[in-house]
Amino acid sequence: MPKFLIQAMYTLEGTKGVMKEGGTGRRNAVEQAIKGMGGKLDAFYFAFGQTDVFLIADLPDAVSAAAVSLAVNSAGGAKTITVPLMSPEEMDAASKKSVQYRAPGR
User: Fold this and answer.
1) For the chain, where are the alpha helices, taking DSSP H only?
2) What pTM did the predictor assign?
3) Rg for the chain (alpha carbons), in Å?
4) What percent of the chain has pLDDT over 90?
5) What are the CA-CA distances from residue 46 to residues 1, 8, 60, 62, 106 (Å)?
């Protein structure tokens, strides 16, 4: 199952929600959303800085990852960035593919 890194930045309302229900409450809510899409939450960490939460999830496909992103962003408590992750073996396979590409100006 493909893995995705999801970064979340809380809005003011989202931050108030975390303060009200705690970190484990947010993790549980996210885990249920991921499970509802047929996926599995691998890791969930709060952080300091621009990003408030980093999580890694297994999801069936990019469409499911986009659906999670749309649901979270439209709820207004957080803004997310979703990044597909690749294993070293997948990168090996990508490096063996032939791509016809011309750089600008060449």
Assistant:
1) 12-36, 62-75, 88-95
2) 0.89
3) 17
4) 99
5) 24, 9, 24, 24, 46
